[in-house]
Design goal:
heterodimer, A: alpha+beta, five-stranded antiparallel sheet, two-stranded antiparallel ribbon, 3 helices, B: mainly alpha, two-stranded antiparallel sheet, 6% strand
Amino acid sequence: MAAAIVVVQLGLVANGYRDPHNYFAFQPFNESSTYAVALVRVLPDGERVAVPDGRWEGYDWDELIGWRALQGPWRQRHAFSGVDAVVDYLDHALDWMADNTPDDTTTLYLEATVTYYRNARGPYATVIRSPDRELGGP
Amino acid sequence: MTAAAAASTAADRRRRWLDQVFDEPASVRAVAIVRIVLGPSVIWHLRPFLADALNGVTYLDVFQQKWWPWVPNAPAGLYVALLWTGVAAAVLMTVGLWSRPATWVTLAVVAYNFFLSETHFRHNRAFLIILLAGVALCDNGRVLSLDARRRPPPDDRALLWPVWLLRFEAASIYFASGFSKLIDPDWVGGRVLHDRTLRYQDDARDALGDTLGGPVLEVLGARAFHWVLSPVAVATELFIALGIWFRRTRLAAVWVAVAFHIGIEVSAQVEVFSVIAIGALAIWVTPSTRDRELITPRRWVRWLDWTARFDITVVAGASWRMVDRDGTVLEGRQARRFVMTRLPATFLFSQFWRYQ
């Protein structure tokens, strides 16, 4: 068992150079990167509605996220565990939001433009979005 | 010596080491110290989850990113009960009542909470789980515990292979952190630390005040300062990772590690990392106890000898005298200085480099 644990730990450390989150690879304080998010709701007719403060249809992004690392991303924030990790978390968060906001009967999908500085270089931007939601009303 | 004889000697050494690791019981006192440190750390770690629960919010109410789909989601009521169970187990673990089962329960709760969502991941929490697992694998209640008081065991010895695993894990953490920064030009070149310093300079100015903050930030904000600081930080981590394995450099590595963690605690928010990392340095203590004879006039030495380095006789008015494991005798100031290097509470301020 001891040998297996050693091998697994070494594997996880090596995997940290591939995995954006470097889980169990122990690379803390890896970047000084920052990011900001511009969130829009895209309606079935293609209209894009900005969500500048993270509030829409009775929902609040910060409340739903419940995690300081991703709260208030409308202003430039430190990227917890690096830009790649944050973009991955945000991507999953959009999916989760799409699935867990049943009172929103008008949004087809959520889209976030993530603008970031990687170790003070940039800005760069990437766009992520949730899957299409099924709109049928409550 | 012929090549064959050298190979045979090396093989003998390797066999002796494996015997020592897997078959020979040794003192678990250092593991018990880690157990005691981990209890309050676990409670501090669970505190924000409990605070949310008291406000009616659990992981079920917020964004959850599952590690694996097969990890079952506990209903809110059960989840909160589990958290409180973890707190109770952590208390039992620290006082050493049903030490081993309590450590396993604590580990189960902390690990379950951790693996409910990737958003619960932090490096310090991963290290906490590793430490809990290592301590749980050891017969950790044989000393410094209520268990040992209720039913005193014949001695404080048990198999120590989990301690070797913990040593490997602890050293890996320093090495992985240092090496990843070493090969990152932005890190080792100072760009990352410089950028972070500039971003938080207003907070630093608020904390230090204008009079002190101005000159301090002038230095900290200079790019050149980080050309020096960053490689030093990387070298520090690598030195701890490697130096802690060797007898000649171990005390220096421990001293640097303590200073390093205090520095991190002052400059960053790392939850329980500093406390558990400093506590975990106990695993590097030689696992034998009371194998140095000490005569001292000072009663407090007994209270501060947490790792039981000395077989202490307190004699009022006597001068200090210490007989080391190899028979070396130190007297007077020399003996006192040596003792300071082996007591955790005085180690940081001792002349440890004189007494390897």
